[in-house]
Structure formats: C-alpha cells, structure tokens
Design a protein that fits this description.
Layout: E1 3-5, H1 12-22, H2 42-53, E2 69-76, E3 79-87, E4 97-101, H3 110-126, E5 130-136, H4 140-148, E6 152-159, E7 162-170
Antiparallel strand pairs: 1-2, 2-3, 3-4, 5-7, 6-7
Length: about 170
C-alpha cells in the first residue's frame, strides 16, 4: 500500500534509484529537484532534503515568508515511486501542485491517488477553494489524471517549457 511521506535522508538510495529510473534531464515537478542540486553525495542530499522540508508547517499555523510548500514522496515497501508538492505561494506558471511518478511505477493510479490526497491538504492547510494544476500540453496521461480529480481546463498557454495545459480543480467545502 503506498503512502505519502515527508522527504527523508533515510531513503537516499531509494531516491537515487527513482531518479535514475527517469534518466538524465529535467526531473519531475513533484521533487523540486534542480539541475544544480547535489543529491548524489550524502551531505548534498541531506542539505537538499532540509531545504525541501524546513518551512513545512501544520494546518492553522501561518505560512512563513519565502517560497515553500508541502513536499511528499510516494513510497511503497521502501521504494520511492514519485513525488508531489503543494506550493503554499501561488505560482501562475507552475500552479499550486506538481507531481510525477517514475516510469516503472506508472499506470497504477498513483498520481491520481496522490493528487486526491494533496487536494485535501490544500483545503485544510491553506483554506483554498480551488487549485491550479498544470501539465505539458502533450502529456495526455497527466491531463486525464487531473480531469479525473475534477480539473476543468482553463486553457493552454505557451511557456518557456512549451505549451502548458492549465486546470482549475474546485475543492468544495
């Protein structure tokens, strides 16, 4: 049974296995991994994990200053299968939520399950009544995942990463 957990240094090897499953190049949005981030060394990985979780906070506490969010890893039996992150500051280009599932774990419904879980967090922690979720214009699987979670297409926008689908998901009270 998969679970959503905070990023942790204890899963360093499992994280690297997940990253390697994607291969070289840009990594999925749910991890917040940048090209300059050192996640191979133990010290670099620990610093990166700390940066990802240092400003997390429970429902009811005010948001700290600066960009931050609720990062989660999708984990099952000690394997990192993907990541999802709720951004606490609105970003019109990236949306409120970003996620990704490693290629070898796709087609199991993990992205839809994780997205559904984080929609509840967006409502509880941030008090939002709707969230913006974006995906690449040609990513049909992600578009279907968003639509199955109530996403309504707002349009397609040209961005630095190419055409991007923009969906609003109502969070009903």
């Amino acid at each position: 049974m998969p679970e959503l957990i905070l990023p942790t240094v204890r899963l360093h090897a499992a994280f690297l296995e997940c990253r390697d499953d994607w291969g070289p190049g840009p990594h999925e949005d749910g991890f917040g991994l940048g090209a300059a981030d050192d996640v191979d060394s133990a010290a670099g990985f620990a610093a990166w994990v700390h940066k990802r979780v240092r400003l997390t906070h429970p429902a009811g506490e005010p948001c700290p200053d600066g960009p931050h969010g609720s990062p989660r890893w999708i984990v099952e039996n000690g394997r990192v299968l993907g990541g999802i992150a709720l951004r606490h500051r609105y970003d019109d280009d990236l949306g409120h939520l970003g996620y990704g599932v490693r290629p070898s774990a796709r087609r199991r419904g993990l992205a839809g399950w994780a997205l559904g879980e984080m929609l509840g967090e967006a409502r509880a922690v941030l008090g939002l009544d709707r969230v913006l979720v974006v995906c690449a214009g040609d990513n049909v699987a992600s578009a279907r995942t968003i639509e199955r979670n109530g996403g309504v297409l707002d349009g397609i926008r040209d961005t630095a990463l190419g055409p991007t689908r923009r969906y609003w998901i109502p969070l009903g009270r």
